[in-house]
Protein: Amino acid ABC transporter permease
Amino acid sequence: MATDTGRETGTEAGVIERMNDATFRRIGVFGTSLVAVGVAAFLLYVLLVRVDYELFVEIIYPQFTLAFLRVLGIVLVSSVLSVIAGIVVGLARVSLTGVTRNIAKGYIEFFRGTPLLFQLFAIYIGIPQLWNGAFPIDQWNYYAAVIGLTLNHAAYVGEATRGGIESIPSGQMEAARSLGMSYIQSMQNVVLPQAWRNSLAAIGNDQVILVKDTSLLTVLAVPELMTAFRNINSATFDAWTPLILVAIAYLMLTIPLGRVVSYLERRADPASAGGDG
Structure:
């Protein structure tokens, strides 16, 4: 109250507070501008001095193009499967049955509590050793990559879905049940659509992380983008030219994905959808 009164009446305390606000804003603008100029200067130096543009054009195809397409395929399959599996896990987390709820909780705890690299090794190396004789699946590294990414990110999508469901007031479920809907119908037609909207941002962020996690697939001998970088760096001793291509390739995946998530969020929000016309 005293602060508001000071602002309104122009007392000495109010004047000092406004000066402090203005000072902090100027410091913030100066600090962020300094960082932006520093980053821009560094990028300009790398692009003008360190990048070999003849090599840049030479390695775009086939090395990086094929690696990009492999990553894109793995991301598309893993993303779809992880979202579907994650919704199932999220529904299991809010199940009325204790056994189902606890199994889903254990699944999430395990896959969130152990490193993705460990999970990839367990699938890629561990599972074939359980097999008596020769492992029958060719190119197991690709399957291991998709399975590992799917299982890991389904846990995060499951938690996001659980949070979205629990953010819906219980009265919504009660109102649906009072209209004669079953539990499943109420969940499907009333709760889940609203929960999806509430959890969409978290799920979208997780899918962006999934894209970046594909860089770990180099340990499974999947010829993805970081493998292409290492091969070219070993052959040419040029680090920055392939690194710039790796950055461009990942941004070509993550930026459109972020736009898609933002679009879905607007579509899911009735107020925003109305405003978009």
About this structure: The radius of gyration is 25 Å.
